[in-house]
Automatic annotation (TrEMBL):
Biased composition (Gly residues): 515-532
Name under which the protein is recorded: Uncharacterized protein
Region Disordered, annotated ranges: 496-561
UniProt-listed Gene3D superfamilies: Ribonuclease Inhibitor
Feature: compositional bias, Low complexity: 496-514
Top-level taxon in the UniProt lineage: Eukaryota
Upper classification of the organism: Eukaryota, Sar, Stramenopiles, Oomycota, Peronosporomycetes
InterPro entries in UniProt: LRR_dom_sf
């Protein structure tokens, strides 16, 4: 679109219509994804100003088409920058500030906070194109901003005059020197007869369309806001204001039986008031007899489910979390939950995006063997502080990176752990006070860390030191406060095959380590050569803690006052 084109006004109109349509689409997405009301209000203001500014400016500046074009393009560029640059920065910067660049992750305090987690996932979707239409609507304001800058550069120039030396004697005097610095418009007003203007009725129609569009956007926004503020739902922690909503929209819903008037359970009516496609986090807490309602299956965009400090009275397959109804689910947590058996509602095929199932502090005594046919690979499986007396054999057939059975009552490990279907990266058995030995056959090759802190293990089998692990650097056994470590009064290093051992300074506080195939290791536990070695750490505690799930954090957030 050339600023000097005779058809500039028509081309500008077409571009404005496409631009406003794309901004309206992005504003709609914002209303469904962003829970911060002031961002939605700011976005609405940008769209409404964009709709109304063109008719107003073209009417007020009708006497000077050059000035009109300068002002229209400048304002249009500012509005484009607001929607394409400013709003994404407002969304992105708070998360960039708290991102840990060393661990390439966010802190546990943030990730285990349902409200923060839901906000992070949903808000950052505004930064990425989720469909081809979304991609187009995101590119339009960027292209429009570039076009505005290019045309403003052409439109605003310094008027140039010949130098005085080029004037012959008797010629007309050149303009005053001060006039050389005046800003003028370039040839836009010089030939008005050649410019193509809107016909009178057509111009009024265009202005009416733009004005009506702005009014419609404002009315839709106010209606969505009215639906949100007029419905009193104290359990909603992140209310949304999506366009065209007829029911209450909530991103994070915490149904606390204690706060709801000492009720026993969440009911169908408690969930049916929520807009189905808006709910992303559901927390049910402090309920003495939970009967899970079938409406649990009505939330396709659910990301996180947490059941806290409750007793499960019934949770059957009619109220299941499954791969068909919950295609976006990434986390399931059961914390301080009383259940006589593992609920049928979780013995279903789970969605592929699911990364973790975490159970902490429960009277659960076993895991059904059928889970190996129902559950897909995950990153995390924690069953901590449960009443397991035997190692759940089904875990040997499930694929997970990090497995924790901390705080259970396991007395022995199965002898066939080395034949597990998949290798774990980390296994936590800390706090199993009755566990006295590790399996002679070892674990599946590939494990990096084994935590047996505060157990009754008194001997470390030879496979720990054999260099059998496939990852460079071997693996670490955290054995703090075990009989094995308590019996070690000095640091010891022993080669498992033919090497000469080298013992470091005598100190009960040194790390105990053993290498293989080299000249021995010092008190720091670094191998002298050959294959990678295992390291038994008796002093430095597991940096991730004895248990993995942050129980204290969840308790402080949801325990009734």
């Amino acid at each position: 679109m050339s600023v000097q084109s005779n058809y500039f006004n028509y081309l500008f109109l077409i571009r404005e219509m496409i631009e406003i349509a794309s901004q309206s689409y992005q504003m709609y997405n914002s209303s469904t994804l962003l829970a911060r009301p002031w961002i939605n209000a700011f976005f609405m203001s940008l769209v409404v100003v964009n709709c109304w500014s063109t008719p107003i400016l073209q009417h007020v500046l009708a006497h000077s088409s050059g000035l009109e074009r300068v002002v229209c393009l400048t304002l249009d560029g500012l509005l484009d920058a607001g929607s394409a640059i400013l709003i994404p920065l407002i969304v992105f910067l708070p998360y960039a500030r708290v991102f840990d660049r060393d661990s390439l992750s966010f802190s546990s305090d943030n990730l285990y906070d349902p409200q923060w987690f839901v906000n992070m996932v949903r808000e950052n979707r505004m930064l990425f194109a989720m469909s081809s239409q979304d991609l187009f609507s995101k590119l339009v304001p960027h292209h429009s901003l570039w076009s505005c800058m290019k045309n403003i550069k052409k439109l605003i120039v310094r008027q140039k005059y010949p130098s005085e030396s080029n004037y012959a004697p008797g010629a007309t005097d050149p303009p005053a020197k001060d006039d050389d610095h005046d800003l003028v418009t370039k040839k836009v007003d010089s030939s008005p007869k050649k410019q193509v203007e809107y016909p009178g009725k057509g111009k009024k129609l265009v202005h009416a369309v733009f004005t009506s569009w702005g009014i419609a956007v404002l009315v839709i926004y106010l209606h969505a806001r009215h639906i949100s503020v007029s419905t009193d739902v104290p359990a909603c922690k992140l209310p949304l204001r999506p366009w065209f909503a007829t029911t209450f929209a909530c991103a994070s819903y915490n149904f606390d039986c204690h706060e709801q008037g000492q009720v026993d359970t969440v009911t169908s009516s408690d969930l049916s008031i929520l807009r189905n496609d808006s709910l992303a986090a559901l927390i049910i807490s402090n309920c003495p007899a939970v009967k899970m309602p079938p409406e649990l299956r009505n939330f396709p965009n659910l990301l996180k489910f947490l059941l806290y400090n409750s007793t499960i009275a019934s949770w059957d397959s009619t109220a299941s979390l499954n791969s068909v109804d919950h295609t976006s689910l990434v986390s399931i947590c059961l914390v301080r939950v009383n259940m006589t058996e593992f609920p049928l509602g979780l013995q279903q095929e789970l969605p592929n995006p699911l990364t973790d199932i975490q159970v902490s502090t429960s009277n659960l005594t076993y895991l059904p063997s059928s889970l190996s046919q129902k559950w897909q690979p995950m990153t995390i499986m924690y069953f901590e502080f449960c009443d397991f007396t035997e190692f759940p054999l089904v875990l040997l057939d499930l694929r997970a990176d990090d497995v924790s059975l901390a705080g259970a009552k396991i007395t022995a490990l199965p002898s066939n752990m080395s034949s597990a279907q998949f290798a774990w990266i980390g296994l936590v058995l800390s706090g199993n006070a009755l566990l006295s030995e590790l399996p002679d056959a070892g674990l599946k090759s590939g494990i990096l860390t084994l935590s047996i802190e505060n157990t009754n293990v008194s001997e470390i089998p030879s496979w720990v030191y054999s260099g059998m692990q496939s990852f460079a650097g071997g693996f670490v056994v955290y054995a703090y406060n075990t009989p094995f470590c308590l019996a070690e009064n000095t640091t010891s290093s022993v080669a498992s095959s033919g090497g000469s051992g080298a013992t470091g300074a005598s100190s009960a506080e040194e790390t105990v380590s053993t290498g293989s195939g080299g000249s021995g290791t010092g008190p720091t536990g670094s191998a002298g050569g050959g294959m990678t070695s295992g390291t038994v750490n008796c002093v430095t505690r597991d940096p991730s803690g004895e248990a993995r799930y942050p129980l204290a954090l969840t308790t402080s957030s949801f325990q009734p006052s």
